[in-house]
Amino acid sequence: xxxxxxxxxxxxxxxxxxxxxxxxxxxxxxxxxxxxxxxxxxxxxxxxxxxxxxxxxxxxxxxxxxxxxxxxxxxxxxxxxxxxxxxxxxxxxxxxxxxxxxxxxxxxxxxxxxxxxxxxxxxxxxxxxxxxxxxxxxxxxxxxxxxxxxxxxxxxxxxxxxxxxxxxxxxxxxxxxxxxxxxxxxxxxxxxxxxxxxxxxxxxxxxxxxxxxxxxxxxxxxxxxxxxxxxxxxxxxxxxxxxxxxxxxxxxxxxxxxxxxxxxxxxxxxxxxxxxxxxxxxxxxxxxx
Length: 289
Known about the structure:
The chain is α/β, with parallel strands linked by helices. It has one domain (52-286): 3-Layer(aba) Sandwich (Rossmann fold). 33% of the residues lie in helices and 10% in strands. It has eight helices and six strands. The chain has a six-stranded mixed β-sheet with strand order 2-3-1-4-5-6, sandwiched between helices. Helix 1 (29-38) packs parallel to helix 8, helix 2 (61-73) packs across helix 8 (263-286) and helix 3 (127-134) packs parallel to helix 4. It is globular, with a radius of gyration of 18 Å. The termini are far apart.
């Protein structure tokens, strides 16, 4: 699976849709933000939804967490540490990220968990650790070990996970400009993890990052995201190979160079976040847990 990032000259009018193939409320970002602010789980036994991120090294998992917080707080944040041009996963420990909503101690009713990246060949997070995390057995602070999974006699093993410990949505994070990272080995890991999530009935979505670096049209104007035929074709190929439907794949641009929030960047981030939240809500309401 290899995609060549094209040049701007390569994009003639035939490579652009005259109308966006997916609509997004660019001018109504506040409506998406208000949905997130108003959301509360409809089950009394669920304190918060838990979203687990995983994907290739350098995909932008930690940056996506920072971007979500930036969109929610209307300022650039960087609580989840990231490494520029990392050749191996910067995230080593399992950590839960909460997002402050108002005053200190007031948080949104959803959390993110970051994981070690799926490194090439035999490196990266052990797939069985992902399954253990999905089932709520992994405690914060656990250090990932590529060669072995978390043992049930470890102090980081949660023997009796509650509903709030379990994962409600699995989110694949894939870099649009480095799709070549999805080697046969990496694809196998993604499919194995996807199969585990399916066995548990956990909904799955994909967030496609670095779209501005993958397509010159989008780099020129972020509103071209759903006009780019190149990006749509890449999403279709990813959907076919992994099995995630197109309407569960969301292209975004993470904050990386900006020092102030941007309305268009926020719109894509909040659109993806809203779908993640609604998928988690459907899961907790439709499944006996």
